[in-house]
Amino acid sequence: MATQLPPSFFLYGEAEQVANPDFVHIEDLAARSRPSGWSISPHKHADLNHLILISSGGGVIQYESDFSEFIAPALLVVPAGAIHGFEWHTESGGQVLTIADVQLQQLCSEHGEFAKLFETSRCIALEPGECEAIDDSMTLIARELSWKGLGQSAALQAGLLMVMVQAARRLQHVEGEIQGTTRQRDIVARFRQLLEKRYRQREPVDTYARELGVSQTALREACAAMGQPPIAMRDQRAILESQRLLAFSAMSIAEIGEAVGIGDPAYFSRFFTRKCGSSPAQWRRDAMRGRTSGR
Description:
This protein is of the alpha+beta class. The chain has 11 helices and 9 strands. The model has no long low-confidence stretch (mean pLDDT about 90).
């Protein structure tokens, strides 16, 4: 059965394609939002990540099946693969920075403190001075992308690093100290990448550890430092996919269980209810009500 999930684009409205590993793009928020009536329909990007600076205005962002209101100044984080959409206040202002996932993963491997920023979609409230600093860094990136000159690659890297540092510092201020050691953050970042490919196989911890080239103890300790054991992270990814399919597809509950690696419908229903506090059928009804009245 067709899933009817929101479309996957390269940049919004553009046919999907594989991004160059070093792809970086920046544009004014109004460039795509104004022509579409300040409404961006739910969609996703397979291998592109967004940092969206909102310097004026605000609106409602849809992350997966959840809706959140925000006002400027704010920074919206959208990891690759996340379903997202927007209803902007008319003439909201800001900049949209897009980074290829390969480049982002390289930055995170060199600077482990950045990994937490893109663990999930999030909206980070900013102070006016922080907004101005990030805007300046994004403007530098935009300027370097507009021409070819000596040191362009270094200047782009510098601009990206400044945006990431400013965003990570603000997140740390909002959420508290960064967890774990640099090595533990690297292990968890690689583990999340592995889960993205293989969570449906529902493998044991020793298989994941072997694939990552670390001991089971090292993997368990790294995940514990981030607040969840490895199996809970695996199950969380399965739940996210289940919720996407419940919210956006016409698949039956049994088909959704099969799609996330749980072929027994009764066990999938118990698993989902235990994790989410309601049955898959009830969760779907609530999500449908949220989509029609939550905005």
